Amino acid sequence: MRAHRLRAGELNLEHMRATAQHAAMGKLSAHVEDLSLTGAALVVHGAAASAGLVLVGDRLEKLRLECREGTIYRGTASVRRVMEREDDLVIGIELESRGIDLGLVYRFGSRHGFADRLSAVLSANETARIFSEFKAWVADFRSYLLTTKAFLDAEERALDGMDLLSREQTLQAYQEEVSPILVERLNAASAELSDFASRLSEDQHSHYRAYFRAHVIPLLCASPLLRRAYEKPLGYAGDYEMMNMLYRDHAEGDSLFSKVINIYAAQEPAARANINRLEYLGARIREMALEKDGRIRIASIGCGPAREITKLLEEQPRLGPRLEIALIDQEDRAITFAERTLGPLAAKHGARVQFIKESVRRLLTTKKLSAALGERDFIYSAGLFDYLNQRSVTALMSALYEALIPGGQLAIGNVAAHNPTRFFMEYALDWFLIHRSPEDLLAFAQALDPTPSRMMVDSEPLGVNLFLRLWK
C-alpha cells in the first residue's frame, strides 16, 4: 500500500519551499512537489539543478519544509532517489525524525474537509503498520542471534583458565567450526528478508527498516565491518577503511561471536564481489600490458585504498616501470593511506603514482577533470557510479571518455540489479545504491562522441559487480 501523498495542488499552502544544507551544493533551496508522512519530493529548478551533484545516500542537514503559514518539518533527511525532469532535478527524500504532521498541514490549508483529513491519517497509519508475519520473522531471527551469542560467550568464558596459547588454539577451532554454519544461516536470513521487502511498497520500507534495525542492529553491529557500515564515521558507507576490512583477515572482533558475525559480513555476496574486483581490475591492466608496448597511463576515480594496484605490483613487479597511475579520491584519509602503503612499493618497483585529493563532484562542476587526468590508456571507477544519478553518470562518463587516448579503454563498475544483498544493506545498514542492468549501462554509452569502437558489459566471477567497458 502506498502512503497517501499530498500534491501541492491539493493544498492551499502558498510557496511551499524546502531549504537545507548539502555537502556538495551548500545551501539547497527547492520547491516541495509532494509530501507523505515520512518523505517528500523536492524540485530544484534550472541552473541550481546543475550547481552540484546530489547522490543517493546523501544527507540533507538543517532541513526545513515551510509555507507562508509556518514550518511543517524541521530536521534531517536522506536522499533516496534522484531524477531529472527537463532542466530540473527531482530529489526524493526520507525524513529521519518523527516525520511530517499531516494534521498540521491540513489545518494550515487543506481545500478538502474532514473526510479527506481522516483518509490521510488512516492511510498513513496503515502504511506504518508492520505485518505480524514480519514481526514474527524478526523475533525468530533475533532469538537465533541472541541464542548463538549466549552460547558462544559461555564457551569463551569457559576457556578463561587455559594458558594463552591453548585458549587461542581452542577458540580458533571453535571459530572454524561455527563460522560456516553461521554464514549459511545469515545468508538464508538475508534471502528471507529480501523476499519480505520485495513485497512492500516504497512508502512501507521506511517503517519496516526502522523495525528491523531496532530489534537486530545491536547484535549485527558486534561485527566491526557492519558497525562501520552502519555508523558511517566518514559520513558515507563504503569508505576506504571498509574496503581495507574486506581485504584483510576477516576474523576481526573482540569476542568469538563478533568474529563469526564479521566473517559473515565479509563473505556475503556483495562483499565477495568487492573482493573480486582486485583480481578483475588487475587482470585488465595485465591484458593492456600484453597488448601495448611502452608506458601505460592509468587513472582510478574514487580510488579508495587502491588495493588492486598494490596487489598488482606485489605480484607483477616487472610491470612497475611501465605504469603511470593517477589516483583520485575525495577523502583525505584514503589518499593518505594510499600514499603510505602504495607510495614506497611504487617507488621500489619504478611505478609513477600521482595522488590527487579532490572531489569528483567539484572536478565535474568546474570542468577540470580532463585537465587533471591528461591523456590515459585506461581509466576505471569501481564503485563511484553506484551512487550517481543518470545526469551525473552521463557527465562523468563523458569527461572520462574524453581523457582517453584513441584506442584507450574505460571501465565503469556498477552493482547489478539482481544484487542478492540489496535489502540487507538497506534494512540493516542504511546503505543505498543505484542498481543497474547491463542494458542500463550500455544505454549510457550511446551519447558518447566519438562513438566507442567497441563496448561490452562483463563482471567479476559472482556477477554482482558489473563493468561497462568502452574502447575509444
Structure description:
With 472 residues, the protein is of the alpha+beta class. The chain has helices spanning 102-109, 114-128, 132-157, 164-197, 202-220, 224-231, 240-247, 256-267, 269-291, 307-315, 332-349, 360-365, 369-373, 390-402, 422-429, 438-444, and strands at residues 6-7, 17-22, 26-35, 39-44, 59-67, 70-85, 88-95, 296-301, 323-329, 352-357, 376-381, 404-415, 454-459, 465-471. It has a seven-stranded mixed sheet, with helices on both faces. Strand 3 and strand 4 form a beta hairpin. Helix 4 crosses helix 8 (256-267) and helix 10 (307-315) runs parallel beside helix 11 (332-349). The radius of gyration is 25 Å and the shape is flat. The two termini are 47 Å apart. 39% of the residues are buried. The model has no long low-confidence stretch (mean pLDDT 88).
Number of DSSP-assigned strands: 14
Helical stretch tally = 16
What is the rounded Rg?
25 Å
Main sheet overview: 7 strands, mixed
Percent in strands? 15-25%
pLDDT averaged over residues: 88
Oligomer: single chain
Strand arrangement, major sheet: 10-9-8-11-12-14-13
Task: State the order of secondary-structure elements, H for helix, E for strand.
Answer: EEEEEEEHHHHHHHHHEHEHEHHEHEHHEE
Distance between the termini: 47 Å
Secondary-structure content class: alpha+beta
Low-confidence stretches: none
Global morphology: flat
